[in-house]
Amino acid sequence: FDLPNHMAEHVYMYAGESVHVTFHTGKPQIADVLDWFGRDAQLSAVDDDTVQVEVKVNENAMFFWALQYGLVVEVKSPESLRSRLAEATKAMAKKYR
């Protein structure tokens, strides 16, 4: 049992299987990404300002993490997570109109 790896995959302590998630964020958020997901997060430059991040994480935990960092993060895959986030943000926007 690898506790640091388990903690990185189970942000917010959600139980269940982990999935591979790809997201884009700004370079200033790299420290936050490493704090949350550990050194197993794979980072690659998209352009001068944007980084692609690949992590293995519980999908439910990633859903809430992405909502928390929604202004500076765009989940690219899996499509099921993108769809959930799109529906949630539409519902949130409707409440604040």
The helix fraction, in percent, is 40-55%
Largest sheet: 4 strands, antiparallel
Name the strands of the widest sheet in spatial order. Answer: 2-3-1-4
Helix and strand content put the structural class at: alpha+beta
> Which stretches of 5+ consecutive residues score pLDDT under 50?
none
Question: Helix and strand string, N-terminal first?
Answer: HEHEEHEH
Number of strands: 4
Q: Mean pLDDT, nearest integer?
A: 91
The rounded distance between the terminal residues' Cα atoms is 47 Å
Strand content: 25-35%
**Helix count from the secondary structure assignment:** 4
> Which overall shape is indicated by the principal axes computed on the Cα atoms?
globular
Rounded to the nearest angstrom, the radius of gyration is: 13 Å
Produce the secondary structure layout.
Elements: H1 3-9, E1 18-26, H2 30-37, E2 42-45, E3 50-58, H3 59-68, E4 73-77, H4 79-95
Antiparallel strand pairs: 1-3, 1-4, 2-3
Question: Could you describe the 3D structure shown?
Answer:
By secondary structure, the chain is α+β, with helices and mostly antiparallel strands. 43% of the residues lie in helices and 28% in strands. It has four helices and four strands; from the N terminus they run H-E-H-E-E-H-E-H. It has helices at 3-9, 30-37, 59-68, 79-95, and strands at residues 18-26, 42-45, 50-58, 73-77. The protein has a four-stranded antiparallel sheet. The longest helix has 17 residues, at 79-95. The mean pLDDT is 91.
